[in-house]
């Protein structure tokens, strides 16, 4: 207590603390939540994504990324890069325009908001008069054309956002030159599209919503051509040479219009409904790309037959006789084409199609046969199946790293070999100091291995545990295997698939030994799999064992889910981690804790009923211990809380609905329903929460007792070689901590290596500690004679750690949700404690030992506890004296899933989910910082023009 | 055995010197003694540091009565009870007449024969509108038995009346500890939990704090019903004059909290079962250099909690001086024994 009252009296320590600890949120990994707009600069080769919360993120070459946030937190509607500039303009849903620029500062580029602007109409005019619908940054980068709902096109000067009123293009001015017979004032309502002439910057093409298209001469302020479409206009696209343009329409048609000096022409050359003849949905955006061989690429979004495929999110690519409709599992936000950047080139020669869907980014290689997808180096959809747990392993040995990459590369053969086409900017961050793996467990029974060393979190390898089990899903019932002659030629792309066939497959705990390559994975239905890394495909039988955690407890009936059925006989596994043994807990409750000791070849697992120890060398169960209190009936019922189970059952019922829909209309598939179901799900969740809010908020004050529910829930398991019985002999031991504040210690006898297969591993209970405050035990740790935490298994054998001090006396640290306590060993007497909840009202959610190095000297480092509380604060607590060093607010306390998802690394960094699809990376250390450092240089201005907007006299000014 | 000697009132010097002087006057060098004096109200107060020594000298009118007791003779129980009886006899004016009218506890029996269930504590340092209640959960099977809720209360601030969020008792479970004591009631506002103010904390945080302290829960409330408050004379001892009606004295709760925290250690012992043997309480490890202090506190505390009551004005004095100098936070043996002070036991 006094430690709290008089903090920081030691100036030396205070100085050291400044050298050791520092809190930074460094980078966001994954896919932005709720993207709403996309932009691309062929000049900078940077892509920009805006979100519904007002964030804007720029991406270039791997490692090049920038983030900005609009103060308003409004949805970003449109993003436009200013041609030939390091600038971009965003339009928000509050009709405000923002100018952002990339400026170099202290050796790196930074994204900053320069100006903001809202178009103001004359007093008394309706808001629609100035509601911006189309934005055209002119290639002169001096002005911005703003098309509005009223049909007026305003001209504003950049970067000042000064309205040049005399240059406003009014509908009246436009109509002057157009014959009145089929045009009236209403034809000019709502500007749908503005496009600059590709060869002549003095002309712009104006498309009005009702179908009227006008080519406007900026110098003379008059319409030179007009084209009258019969259908509601969606978008326009110029062909490269400026001789023709394409319009696409609400009825699913597109038309090609010639632009000749003869202004009489107002009939389209060609009018096509690609997925006719039945009514089709709108084509909302179209590209017409020329190629050397004469056959153009026509790429458009939408246009599917309304009745049978109206719910698909598709982008079609037509090239001669080849036609594919890429089918996305989530709504398409926007897309762009990367094409020839050589200004002298005669043709577009498109190389890649980049599609931003609601839940993922998909890039299609248009150069290679079959149009394969390109594996993105960033923007990974972490949530392609919901993340259920994470595990971080620091400092992976090179050998294991290479083997994982090689296993992963065999999975990625269907990806294009094209280098990543969005490659602007230069990454100048130093190479990551070490190889780090982040493992995420998912609801569909997969474990994904992410390279978490640097700024780009990318997928190395994906492991699926599904093969071990028999599931309802018929492997042949694959919705994207459609026959050759199917029409429309849909092809499912992307990885986002939020629906698991069986929620019991969900991964709950992961433990990887980086030295031996052993991996233990445990799931929702009490399944524990031990795996070994194999570089080759193999077919083998997975050994089974059952662990009856209830033992002799009589009269219980498990009301939860059944265990998963396993496949009989040998199973074929691809190269990578291959399971060789399955331990099934009985009852098949969710596995709540897991520990693997690769040196002793033991795996320990715990559920709400008890824990067990399995010898995976001899494939023999060593012992089980039931931790259930006899009166705890709730623990048997399965799901952990009523709210949770309600949510779960809702989700399951939706899954059922979806499945029945799928089976009744086989071809319609999941994509269409996915977002609906998601929305409905979210709505129901909200309703449930609201219901809870309405209940009178009162809290029961009661001391915990042994009879409380879930006291037997095993929260933590820990292997240690320490002094359990007497101070002269140390032995292997297994420690377990429960929700009810009980710590069990078992003394283990592991036979020496040469007789490892001959003698059984024995275990005997040596100690049982009951914490009087009965709070859940969330961490157990043994400190050696030098008060250093014991090394990981095999760490010493690989010369990566000093061997622990077995001379001095060991200490046991027990972390409960409420306090930290240090006990002596082998005789357990309490030595020190630090109370958290009694004093601050917060509880420990996550705790890890982290090593902090000094940023001043290389030769100083120390171990501390990194603690995350239920209020979202991070505290660093010293070892072994348990003194609070520093505290940082990190996660909002309302963000329960963020707090639950947090994982610390061994060197004082961490990750937590800020949305289902994004990890925030943070650092507590002054030494280990992984953050983007990059430069975007203005590319050399090309001689007289550049690809996108050739022929501008202004381009020369850039240099 | 009486001695009479004089001191320079304007230059009393240090307590150490005074202590030396006493030993010299009584010809008992090397004998540890406890020093006490009677203040203007007739309360027996300790002298064990510079501040209370100076206070004592300044209150001398003109005579200062000092009581000296041999430390090893007078173990603390003797010291406590003796003081009480002697105070009654020797000193005509007893500290808290109101308490004595209500609870002539010394006459009933020795308190260690009873297990306390709950108590009102620190009556003298709290404003009259507040009540600090201690619930002794250990050893009883009764549930604590109450619920808390969010609410708002009106405070007097420099800007006038202001509505501020607060935590209130929302329900008492019939037959629970809270209800059976009669000291807590529905709609009482919770101000502190074990000496830590709850203002600015969420309902969940306060819940967690109460549960974490549930084995020795001390809650300070502002009772909804203010009519049953203990009414004190205008003359109150020690620091109670500092207390204002609208808020707690800022430094005292924390000081108190620290003392209570320390005390709690003695009654929260984890249990160990070795090799499937009998459950035992986990002993304290032999103190390392750092923890000697706290260990000794605990031993002393233990005795004091068992053995009774010390004059409450001692406590107040300490707090009043404590608020001047933070040095007082470092508890010394002897001082720790003061916190049971002012206890009313409900049997």
Defining traits:
heterodimer; A: 959 residues; mainly beta; Methylamine Dehydrogenase, Chain H; Lipocalin; five-stranded mixed β-sheet; 9 helices; elongated; disordered C terminus; B: 347 residues; alpha+beta; Ubiquitin-like (UB roll); Pdz3 Domain; three-stranded antiparallel β-sheet; 10 helices; extended
Fold and architecture overview:
The complex is a heterodimer of chains A (959) and B (347). Chain A folds into four domains: 8-31 and 842-936, no CATH class; 34-385, 7 Propeller (Methylamine Dehydrogenase, Chain H); 386-481 and 502-630, Lipocalin (Beta Barrel), CATH 2.40.128.630; 749-841, no CATH class. Helix content of chain A is 10%, strand content 41%. Chain A contains nine helices and 65 strands. Among the domains of chain B are: 1-85 and 105-112, Phosphatidylinositol 3-kinase Catalytic Subunit, Chain A, domain 1 (Ubiquitin-like (UB roll)); 118-228, Pdz3 Domain, CATH 2.30.42.10. Chain B is extended and about 60 Å long.
Q: Secondary-structure map with pairings?
A:
The complex is a heterodimer of chains A (959) and B (347).
Chain A: H1 2-5, H2 11-20, E1 21-30, E2 35-41, E3 46-51, E4 55-59, E5 65-69, E6 76-81, E7 87-92, E8 96-105, E9 108-118, E10 132-137, E11 143-148, E12 153-157, E13 162-163, H3 171-176, E14 191-196, E15 203-208, E16 212-217, E17 222-228, E18 233-238, E19 244-249, E20 254-258, E21 270-272, E22 283-289, E23 297-302, H4 306-309, E24 313-319, E25 322-328, E26 332-338, E27 352-357, E28 361-365, E29 373-374, E30 387-393, H5 398-411, E31 426-427, E32 437-442, E33 446-451, E34 458-464, E35 469-470, E36 490-492, E37 507-512, E38 518-523, E39 527-534, E40 538-540, E41 543-548, E42 565-566, E43 571-573, E44 576-586, E45 593-597, E46 602-606, E47 610-615, E48 620-626, H6 642-664, H7 669-694, E49 698-701, E50 714-722, E51 731-738, E52 742-749, E53 762-770, E54 777-783, E55 811-816, E56 819-824, E57 830-835, H8 837-840, E58 844-853, E59 861-869, E60 873-878, E61 884-889, H9 896-901, E62 903-904, E63 909-915, E64 918-925, E65 934-935
Parallel strand pairs in A: 25-36, 41-44
Antiparallel strand pairs in A: 1-64, 2-3, 3-4, 4-5, 6-7, 7-8, 8-9, 10-11, 11-12, 12-13, 14-15, 15-16, 16-17, 18-19, 19-20, 20-21, 22-23, 23-24, 24-25, 26-27, 27-28, 28-29, 30-32, 31-65, 32-33, 33-34, 35-42, 37-38, 38-39, 39-44, 40-43, 45-46, 46-47, 47-48, 50-51, 51-52, 52-53, 54-55, 55-56, 56-57, ...
Chain B: H1 15-25, E1 33-38, E2 44-46, H2 50-59, E3 66-70, H3 76-90, H4 97-102, H5 105-108, E4 118-121, E5 131-136, E6 146-157, E7 160-172, H6 177-181, E8 189-193, E9 196-197, H7 203-212, E10 216-222, H8 252-264, E11 271-274, E12 279-281, H9 292-307, H10 312-322, E13 344-345
Antiparallel strand pairs in B: 1-2, 1-3, 4-5, 4-13, 5-10, 6-7, 7-8, 8-9, 8-10, 11-12
């Amino acid at each position: 207590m006094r430690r709290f009252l008089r903090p920081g009296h030691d100036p030396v320590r205070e100085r050291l603390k400044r050298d050791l600890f520092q809190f930074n949120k460094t980078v966001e990994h994954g896919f932005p939540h709720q993207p709403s707009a996309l932009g691309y600069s062929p000049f900078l080769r940077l892509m920009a994504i805006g979100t519904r919360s007002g964030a804007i993120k720029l991406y270039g070459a791997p490692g090049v990324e920038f983030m900005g946030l609009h103060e308003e937190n409004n949805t970003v509607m449109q993003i436009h890069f200013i041609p030939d500039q390091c600038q971009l303009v965003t339009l928000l849903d509050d009709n405000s325009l923002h100018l952002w620029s990339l400026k170099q500062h202290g050796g790196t580029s930074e994204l900053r908001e320069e100006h903001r602007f809202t178009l103001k109409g004359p007093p008394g005019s309706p808001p629609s008069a100035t509601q911006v619908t189309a934005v055209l940054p002119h290639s002169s980068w001096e002005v911005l054309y703003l098309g509005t709902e009223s049909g007026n096109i305003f001209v504003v000067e950049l970067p000042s956002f000064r309205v040049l009123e005399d240059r406003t293009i009014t509908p009246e001015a436009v109509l002057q030159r157009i014959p009145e017979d089929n045009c009236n004032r209403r034809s000019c309502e709502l500007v749908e599209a503005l496009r600059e002439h590709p060869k002549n910057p003095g002309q712009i093409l104006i498309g009005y919503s009702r179908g009227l298209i006008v080519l406007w001469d900026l110098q003379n302020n008059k319409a030179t051509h007009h084209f009258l479409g019969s259908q509601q206009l969606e978008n326009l696209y110029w062909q490269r040479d400026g001789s023709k343009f394409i319009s696409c329409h609400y009825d699913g048609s597109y038309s090609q219009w010639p632009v000749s000096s003869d202004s009489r022409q107002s009939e389209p050359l060609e009018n096509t409904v690609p997925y006719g003849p039945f009514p089709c949905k709108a084509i909302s955006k179209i590209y017409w790309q020329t190629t050397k061989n004469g056959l153009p690429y026509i790429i458009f979004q939408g246009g599917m037959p309304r009745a049978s495929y109206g719910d698909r999110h598709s982008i079609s690519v037509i090239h001669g006789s080849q036609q594919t409709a890429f089918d996305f599992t989530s709504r398409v936000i926007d897309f762009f084409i990367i094409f020839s950047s050589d200004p002298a080139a005669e043709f577009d020669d498109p190389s890649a199609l980049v599609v931003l869907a609601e839940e993922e980014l998909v890039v299609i290689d248009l150069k290679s046969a079959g149009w394969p997808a390109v594996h993105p180096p960033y923007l990974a959809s972490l949530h392609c199946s919901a993340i259920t747990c994470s595990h971080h392993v620091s400092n992976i040995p090179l050998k294991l790293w290479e083997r994982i990459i090689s296993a992963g590369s065999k999975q990625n053969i269907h990806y294009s070999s094209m280098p990543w086409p969005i490659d602007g900017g230069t990454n100048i961050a130093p190479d990551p100091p070490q190889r780090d793996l982040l493992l995420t467990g998912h609801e569909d029974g997969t474990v994904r291995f992410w390279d978490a060393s640097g700024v780009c979190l990318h997928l190395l390898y994906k492991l699926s545990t599904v093969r071990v089990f028999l599931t309802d899903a018929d492997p042949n019932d694959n919705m994207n295997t459609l026959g050759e002659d199917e029409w429309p030629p849909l092809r499912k792309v992307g990885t986002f698939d939020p629906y698991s066939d069986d929620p019991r497959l969900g991964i709950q705990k992961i433990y990887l030994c980086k030295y031996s390559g052993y991996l233990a994975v445990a799931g929702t239905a009490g399944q524990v799999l031990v795996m070994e890394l194999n570089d080759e495909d193999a077919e083998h039988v997975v050994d089974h064992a059952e662990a009856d955690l209830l033992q002799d407890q009589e009269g219980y009936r498990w009301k939860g889910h059944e265990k998963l059925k396993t496949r009989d006989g040998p199973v074929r596994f691809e190269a990578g981690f291959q399971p060789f043994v399955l331990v099934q807990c009985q009852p098949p409750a969710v596995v709540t804790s897991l520990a693997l000791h690769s040196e002793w070849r033991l795996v320990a697992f715990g559920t709400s009923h008890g824990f067990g120890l399995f010898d995976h060398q001899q494939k023999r169960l060593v012992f089980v211990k039931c931790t259930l209190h006899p009166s705890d009936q709730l623990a048997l019922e399965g799901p952990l809380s009523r709210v949770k189970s309600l949510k779960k059952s809702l989700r399951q019922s939706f899954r059922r609905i979806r499945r029945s829909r799928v089976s009744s209309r086989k071809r319609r598939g999941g994509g269409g329903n996915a977002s609906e179901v998601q929305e409905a799900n979210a709505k129901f969740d909200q309703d449930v929460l609201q219901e809870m809010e309405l209940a009178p908020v009162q809290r029961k004050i009661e001391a915990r007792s042994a009879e409380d529910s879930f006291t037997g829930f095993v929260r933590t398991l820990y292997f240690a070689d320490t002094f359990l019985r007497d101070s002269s002999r140390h032995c292997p031991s297994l420690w377990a901590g429960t929700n009810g504040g009980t710590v069990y210690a078992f003394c283990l006898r592991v036979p020496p290596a040469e007789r490892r297969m001959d003698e059984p591993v024995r275990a005997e209970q040596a100690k049982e500690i009951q914490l009087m405050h009965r709070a859940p035990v969330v961490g157990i740790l043994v400190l050696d004679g030098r008060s250093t935490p014991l090394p990981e298994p095999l760490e010493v054998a690989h010369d990566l750690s000093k061997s622990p001090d077995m001379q001095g006396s060991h200490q046991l640290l027990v972390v409960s949700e409420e306090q930290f306590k240090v006990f002596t060993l082998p005789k357990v007497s309490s030595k020190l404690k630090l109370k958290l909840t009694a004093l601050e009202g917060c509880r420990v959610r996550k705790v890890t030992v982290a090593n902090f190095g000094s940023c001043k000297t290389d030769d100083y480092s120390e171990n501390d506890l990194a603690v995350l509380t239920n209020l979202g604060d991070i505290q660093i607590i010293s070892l072994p004296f348990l003194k609070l060093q520093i505290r940082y607010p990190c996660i909002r306390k309302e963000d329960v899933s963020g707090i639950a998802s947090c994982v610390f690394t061994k060197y004082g960094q961490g990750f937590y989910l800020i949305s289902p699809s994004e990890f925030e990376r943070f650092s507590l250390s002054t030494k280990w910082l992984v953050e983007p450092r990059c430069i975007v240089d203005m590319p050399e201005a090309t001689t007289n023009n550049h690809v996108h907007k050739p022929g501008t006299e202004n381009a020369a000014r850039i240099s | 055995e009486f001695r009479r000697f004089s001191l320079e009132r304007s230059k009393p010097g240090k307590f150490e010197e005074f202590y030396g002087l006493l030993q010299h006057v009584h010809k008992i060098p090397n004998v540890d003694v406890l020093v006490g004096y009677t203040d203007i109200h007739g309360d027996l107060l300790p002298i064990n540091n510079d501040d209370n020594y100076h206070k004592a000298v300044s209150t001398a009118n003109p005579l200062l009565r000092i009581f000296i007791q041999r430390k090893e003779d007078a173990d603390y129980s003797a010291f406590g009870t003796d003081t009480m009886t002697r105070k009654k006899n020797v000193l005509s004016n007893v500290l808290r007449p109101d308490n004595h009218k209500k609870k002539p506890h010394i006459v009933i029996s020795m308190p260690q024969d009873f297990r306390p269930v709950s108590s009102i504590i620190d009556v003298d340092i709290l404003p009259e509108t507040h009540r600090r209640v201690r619930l002794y959960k250990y050893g009883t099977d009764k549930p604590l038995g109450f619920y808390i809720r969010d609410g708002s209360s009106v405070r007097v601030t420099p800007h006038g009346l202001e509505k501020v969020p607060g935590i209130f008792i929302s329900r008492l479970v019939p037959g629970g500890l809270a209800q059976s004591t009669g000291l807590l009631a529905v709609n009482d506002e919770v101000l502190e939990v074990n000496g830590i103010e709850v203002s600015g904390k969420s309902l969940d945080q306060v819940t967690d704090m109460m549960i974490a302290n549930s084995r020795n829960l001390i809650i300070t409330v502002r009772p909804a019903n203010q009519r049953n408050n203990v009414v004190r004379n205008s003359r109150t001892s020690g620091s109670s004059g500092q207390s204002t009606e609208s808020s707690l004295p800022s430094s005292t709760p924390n000081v108190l909290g620290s003392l209570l925290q320390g005390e709690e250690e003695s009654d929260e012992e984890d249990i160990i079962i070795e090799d499937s043997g009998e459950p035992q309480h986990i002993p304290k490890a032999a103190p390392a250099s750092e923890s000697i202090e706290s260990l000794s506190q605990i031993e002393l505390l233990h005795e004091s909690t068992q053995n009774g009551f010390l004059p409450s004005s001692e406590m107040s004095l300490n707090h009043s001086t404590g608020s001047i100098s933070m040095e007082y936070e470092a508890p010394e043996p002897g001082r720790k024994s003061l916190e049971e002070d002012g206890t009313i036991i409900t049997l």
